[in-house]
Design brief:
Length: 87
């Protein structure tokens, strides 16, 4: 499976955002419904962990396959081989 870094970033951001939202909803719901709140918060955390693993697998330079630094903005070129990352 080949994903462009642009897609990795978009998917990662969406999943990360949903994970944070779910955790927040879980905390809010948990004030009234303890078990339901915990389940929602745990689902959100699973999403965040999955998101992290997704980044670890796909957040790589498409040319030299080096792991890129976790820097979401301002990175245009691979710091290792200088390739244009087209982000
Ligand atoms: Zn590179």
């Amino acid at each position: 499976m080949k994903l462009s870094l642009k897609k990795v970033k978009i998917i990662g951001n969406i999943v990360g955002f949903l994970g944070v939202i779910l955790v927040l909803i879980g905390v809010l719901v948990g004030e009234n419904y303890d078990l339901l709140g915990k389940i929602i918060a745990i689902l959100g955390m699973c999403g965040l962990i999955g998101d992290l693993i997704f980044y670890l697998i796909f957040w790589k330079c498409p040319y030299c396959y080096s792991f890129l630094p976790i820097k979401m903005f301002g990175m245009k070129y691979c710091p290792y081989c200088g390739t244009d990352l087209e982000i």
